[in-house]
Amino acid sequence: QTGLVTLDNGFGNTAAYKSAITFVDGDNGILRYRGYPIEQLAAQGGFIETAYLLINGELPNADQLAEFNREITQHTLLHEDVKRFFQGFPRDAHPMAMLSSVVGALSTFYPESHNPFDAAQRHLSTVRLLAKLPTIAAYAYKKAMGQPFVYPRNDLSYVENFLRMTFAVPAEDYELNPVVVNALDKLLILHADHEQNCSTSTVRLVGSSHANLFASISAGISALWGPLHGGANQAVLEMLESIQKDGGDVDAFITKVKNKEAGVKLMGFGHRVYKAFDPRAAQVKLLAHEVLGQLGKSDELLEIALKLEEHALKDDFFISRKLYPNVDFYTGLIYRAMGFPTSMFTVLFALGRLPGWIAHWHEMINDPTSRIGRPRQIYTGTAIRDYVELDQR
Ligand code: SDX
């Protein structure tokens, strides 16, 4: 099939997409965006630069980066009518529900964006989404807090703007903390793409019907919400808090996991592709120690997480199943230290993953051989039979 190749995984062929965006080697813990190792991008790059790389295929030069930042900055405001959507949500609405609803609704403000084959409109939708998702995310937080929305400012960087729109309140000045700004920029880079994961494949499948970019990204946000995928970072914190409530008894929890009590899993562990280690997990673990140290925050939950990891890495139940920490295991501890509630953790994952979703959508739409996604099935239902009248049943 065009756009799909069959890879023999030893258990019969598995159809797979062809893509030039991200390379993952699950056995050796390798992750590269457009050929650049994630470790170098996280250490030396910036999130908007990484977004440009994923979407355009090359690192931007100084002029290209300045222009990309300028374009994004010009589009950070939301139409005033969009704010009314937030008034309709219940106070305790989950921010991921608000994110996917408002992103889908954005397409109603830009009917000209509905034609995926208009290159200028594709670029404008790309810039609008990158610019407005942080504003939507911050407004979702303000809705939950019952605080007034804070408008974006054009003199701030992407991450600075998001942090100020989220945490600033009219009653006092908001002071940006460079430790938080730098750490969040790095975390967004680490989440920016991961080849054909559940949410990215969702974006590609929805986009393959030639639905517009806003509709495709809204679907990707919904897929990411699941606790087995992006929702895991929230589930990890809830798991650590439940262990803390049980007096920090890590061994008792590990026993529950091994006995598969009520489907209890070690959240933040395991991966469909990484069967050695997730290179992002190592980066995030280092960052957790750095940020918590620089913010002067000791966190009992970090101690519990370290004990869980130490125990699991020695236990045959996890080793035999090739279960190692994934990107979600430590991220929540950093987000919590930054002041985010657990309900916002997956929203932060979405902010990071947005350029990857967009890059894959473009790659598919620009592929002249790409066709509508249509998975086939093996029918396991009843064989043919004749209708039975009601009084015969
Ligand atoms: C992300 O695909 C991507 O790239 C995703 C992602 C990205 O960047 O987009 O990397 C982001 O989603 C990371 C994963 C976050 N999810 C979690 O941390 C949730 C906990 N993890 C699991 O639910 C699970 O490991 C998955 C969903 C991540 C992977 O599932 P698989 O590969 O389908 O593994 P499986 O369900 O077939 O499990 C194999 C065995 C089973 O036991 P047995 O039936 O052999 O006895 O391992 C067990 C599972 O029960 N198992 C776990 C476990 N994960 C798998 N047991 C306990 N704890 C776990 N975390």
From TrEMBL:
Pfam families: Citrate_synt (PF00285). SUPFAM superfamilies: Citrate synthase. The active site is at H271, D328. This is Citrate synthase. It comes from Kitasatospora aureofaciens (Streptomyces aureofaciens). The keyword Signal does not apply. InterPro entries: Citrate_synth-like_lrg_a-sub, Citrate_synth-like_sm_a-sub, Citrate_synthase, Citrate_synthase_AS, Citrate_synthase_bac-typ, Citrate_synthase_sf, Citrate_synthase_typ-I. GO terms for biological process: tricarboxylic acid cycle. It catalyses: oxaloacetate + acetyl-CoA + H2O = citrate + CoA + H(+). PANTHER family: CITRATE SYNTHASE (PTHR42871:SF1). Belongs to the citrate synthase family. One of its GO terms (molecular function) is citrate synthase activity. The lineage of its organism: Bacteria, Bacillati, Actinomycetota, Actinomycetes, Kitasatosporales. The keyword Transferase applies. It comes from the Bacteria. Keywords: Transferase, Tricarboxylic acid cycle. NCBIfam families: cit_synth_I, PRK05614.1. GO terms for cellular component: cytoplasm. Pathway: Carbohydrate metabolism; tricarboxylic acid cycle; isocitrate from oxaloacetate: step 1/2.
